[in-house]
Amino acid sequence: MTRVLVVHHDIDLADQEADALRRAGYQVTGCMGPIGAACPILAGMPCAMAEEADVLVYDAFATGEPDGARALIERIREIHPDIPVVLTATGMEPDWAEVVGDHRVTPFVGQPTAANLAAAIERAIAAEADTSGAA
Description:
Low-confidence stretches: none
Number of strands: 5
Radius of gyration: 13 Å
Strand order of the largest sheet: 2-1-3-4-5
CATH superfamily: Response regulator
CATH architecture: 3-Layer(aba) Sandwich
Helix content: 25-40%
Number of domains: 1
Order of helices and strands: EHEHEHEEH
Oligomer: single chain
CATH topology: Rossmann fold
CATH class: Alpha Beta
């Protein structure tokens, strides 16, 4: 079973995403990110919750503001480079989201239904496998 860490600043949206993913057969753990508690990633340290996950589903505004979210995603990719990241946004994809390179993510914009999130997760896992295989 694929293990997913959902990191979202909005507890209601986090619950919706987690419930949808559980219904789709994923094992889900949730975290409010740096808004909810001290974040080891922002301190430049590994995250134990991320280390236990096969894929990370991060809210594009997990820190509450765009520049902080960008720094958070860049650091998570640097500290945990082999864990794919799905970057969710309810409105529009942030202009800073990278889809190639060291800070790559799989962007997801739209309604977080089980099918939509599962498709994004599977794309992220496949892209990471392709990238790792090419190294």
